[in-house]
Amino acid sequence: MTPRIVAHRGNSSVAPENTLAALVSAARADAHMIEIDLQMTTDGVGVVFHDHPLGRTAAGTGLLRDLDSAAVAGLDVGSWFDPAFAGTAVPLLPEVLELLRRYESLGLLLEVSGPWKADALARELATISDAGLAERVIVQSFALESLEISRDVAPSLQLGYLSATWGDSVMESCAQVDAQWCNVNWDVIGENPDVVEANRERGLRTMAWTVNEPEKWAAAIDAGVDGIITDRPDRLRGWLAARR
After folding, report:
1. What distance in Å separates the CA atoms of residue 72 and residue 160, rounded to the nearest whole number?
2. 140 and 111 Cβ atoms separated by less than 8 Å
3. Which is catalytic among the residues 6, 7, 8, 93?
4. Is 73 domain-assigned?
């Protein structure tokens, strides 16, 4: 079985992560899914941004979640990567969903990151169903509360529990939120490939994150993962084609 190619924050090795440029590049590289991080602003708007503190991909200090959507709209998230991307803005979820409409085979792995108010998260997730894209979206999070909200307000969406470890407590968390996916750090699977089959025996599918080297891609496939989350979706696509 060929695993899904999941572009981590888009094709983030060739364009600034979590930007429309990176997401389009991933789509054009024939990734099966794009992975993004969604944080909430002070006025309850979802914005596509990974880090909690400012300073790495956007100039500033403090935490992104302490900004309102107008302030986030003024951030430049491209210059850090290359001057050619100067002025690149933080995307909103509706812009990502419009990309899915243009690329009809593309799926979305939506990581709900940081603290969220239930009504704000419900509004964001409703845009997915309203766009008719629920079957192409998986919501994942490290936060059980966010997954419980997602399950309750958007039952048509698949859920994935994110974990940097694996064991009984992780299985209990997956069961608590009725997750269909258990998405585990590659280091865990690399050390114990039986994790994937153990998940499958419990009715869970597995994506491994974040896997960027051919030898690890091969090991992930041998372990039977259902998806490989990678910063290099274009290279993984080519590697898979050559392997076949």
Report:
1. 27
2. yes
3. 8
4. no
Is residue 48 within 8 Å of 73, Cβ to Cβ? no
Query: pLDDT tens digits for 110-138?
Result: 999 999 999 999 999 999 999 999 999 99
Which candidate in 32, 50, 136, 237 is catalytic? Answer: 50
Q: In Å, how far are 65, 189, 190, 243 from 215, measured between CA atoms?
A: 38, 14, 11, 12
Beta partners for residue 39, in sequence order = 47
**Domain annotation covers residue 48:** yes
Q: How many independent structural domains does the chain possess?
A: 1
Q: CA–CA separation, 144 vs 93, rounded Å? A: 21
Q: Which residue has the tokens 């599918």?
A: 205
> Model-level pTM?
0.98
User: What's 158's domain CATH number?
Assistant: 3.20.20.190
Range of the domain at 29: 4-52+92-243
Helix (H, G, I), strand (E, B) or coil at 232: coil
E strand segments, the chain: 4-8, 33-40, 46-48, 107-112, 137-141, 158-163, 181-185, 207-209, 227-230
Amino acid at 167: G
Tell me whether residue 189 is in a domain: yes
Q: Catalytic residue at 52? A: no
